[in-house]
Amino acid sequence: MILWEVCLKSCTSTSHHVDAARLFVCCWKMPRSPTTIPATVSKYPEWKETGLVELNPVKTLPVVKLNGKILTQSYAILRYLAKLLGSYDGKTPEEQYWVDAICDIVSDWRTLYLQAFLNPNQRETYPKHKEGDRKRFLEGLQAHLTSNGFSKAGPFVLGQAFTYADIVLYQIAHDEDLTQEGGKGLQQYHRLQELVNAVEERPNIKVFLGSDRYRG
Hints:
Blueprint: E1 3-5, H1 20-27, H2 44-55, E2 63-66, E3 69-72, H3 74-85, H4 93-117, H5 122-131, H6 133-147, H7 164-175, H8 180-183, H9 190-200, H10 203-209
Antiparallel strand pairs: 1-2, 2-3
Helix pairs in contact: 4-5, 4-6, 4-7, 5-6
């Protein structure tokens, strides 16, 4: 297998983003070719119009090339790889529903986060987001994970089973600066903190987060 990936954080002006597809790849060891994304933010606009557009017409990242197939859209990539591997997803329709439901909640949260964080008036919009939408999603996810039967069985969304939903939930918590400093931002949300800690203790993710590949 050959994997070619482009990471979101390599080409944005924000240095603290971590892409869900990259975290998934960390869990799944396989040969991969070097990343061909421009090394600097200044070169990205030109590459976006010449290189990226050939891979993804809507010019968004990440892009994964697997066995000659071009895969786009982070969460769709995760779902595809989970099905391909027969792992990182629920085993029953009920478990698969719960994984998808959490993923969709995170997708809604992430949309609002990006609208606030990348807004030209970020100094105004992002603090409002933190006190409004972010708090609402944190409280909601905390309630979901402490009440759902699957989630109560262990640290992950499906209890003891690690899935792509854990990756996307970790991603948004990380990008919202909630995982840094020992998870200081999650002190009020013990169940989310438990999930974050469990994700960071995954052997391959732990190695990645401690390496120079991680710049968050």
